[in-house]
Amino acid sequence: MTRYNTNLASEFYVLSVLYRLGIDATLTLGNKKSVDIFVLNEARDVLTIDVKGVAGKYDWPVDNIRKTSDYTHFVVFISYEGEIENPNILPNVWIIPYEEVNKFTKQYKSRKDVSRALLAKNGEAYHNAWNLLK
Prior knowledge:
The protein has one domain (about 5-134): Trna Endonuclease, Chain: A, domain 1 (3-Layer(aba) Sandwich), CATH 3.40.1350.10. About 20% of the residues lie in helices and about 30% in strands. The protein has 2 helices and 8 strands, in the order H-E-E-E-E-E-E-E-E-H. A hairpin with a 4-residue loop joins strand 7 (about 105) and strand 8. The mean pLDDT is about 90.
């Protein structure tokens, strides 16, 4: 499984869940983009989503996250827990408003990551928080 396929699988997973919840959503196309999905919520507001997926139990690289102060932008972090090739296992999902992402971010010399350990420890409010997108 390539990194690109992991990202595509993650984007389509999020899109599938949104449709199952009755939320209008559109996938954006392209390889280098900062918005993966547009959502029209119940209040008729347009929300934007950046999807970050990892196949294993890893941190998420976030050097390319769109920088914004827009309260309508969300980042969805998906971990397939090392089981990406098993369609019977659901991934772990955290849905975080952009302005909250820094709480879970670690800066290293050459990169910036969202820490899986910090999300697992302090991110329960965002775990499967699909209601934030309604």
